[in-house]
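**Archive record**
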Amino acid sequence: MKFLKKSLLLGLLAALSNTAWSADVSILNASYDVSREFYKSYNPTFVKYWKQKTGDNLTINQSHGGSSKQARAVVDGLDADVVTMNQSIDVDVLADKQLIPANWAERLPNGSAPFSSTSVFLVRKGNPKGIKTWADLAKTGISAIIANPKTSGNGRYAYLAAWGSVIKQGGKPGEARELVSKIFANVPVLETGGRGATTTFVQREIGDVLVTFENEVGLIKQEYGADKFDLVYPPISIVADLPVSIVDKVVDKHGTRKVAEAYLQQLYTPEAQEIAAQFELRPRDVKIAKKYASTLPPLKLFTVAEVFGSLKQAQVEHFKDGGVFDQFYSKK
């Protein structure tokens, strides 16, 4: 009986000890529109990992919207512990406001971008308008759905991909501007984010082609049926790096630096890279990229730096108020 009482007492003390050392922790991830499904799958794996590592009960909250809109929300006070964006300039904005250090991109591999995507075409089944190239989007009678490049990283990369397709094939800036202006003249609805553009194309059935991130296409087919749409890879497109960062001012205020750093570091693990590939995000892990070559085929891609110098330079020239985009789109 004494032994039984002693065992029960030790068990109770162990339980109390575990309770005392475990904590309820939460972080907020501010991310772009079309990443939500990936993080729905990734987050539970990290919660499990963190529980095993620390004993803490972690809750990961998500906030989604146009990438640039999300960055502004963080600047305006959204207490995001981490940001997972679709373009580096939306993270640079946080550095400009001294929420994170200027060298944020050096804190993790691959410029703090654990995976990438690219801009592709989603067309109606059978591709009735025969859309194959960026030039096809500029033709009379074509209705193209593209998110606003001033508010959406998705739309911005589409714009830069179309412009760069001309330059990379020997064309001049004037020719690139003419092509892109004609393409946007064919955009009937300019949604603020990638998910809004998807809704317009898929649910409202507006447009002949949706220009969007590659990973969005798989999600659309999964949700609405692969028999309704075809994926078209343009002959040339752009590398869209998807950068991440902790928000230093927020994690230091919340005391969540360690968990936030680990949350982003784990994105580079084989398990997370595999999940990314399953959602048609292009992984950095070479073995996993090779494994998923059937759904993520090697493509002819150029980087932003090759054509525009950097996203910052492209932002100043093309997307600031009064920039190239405003010059031709305001005349529509």
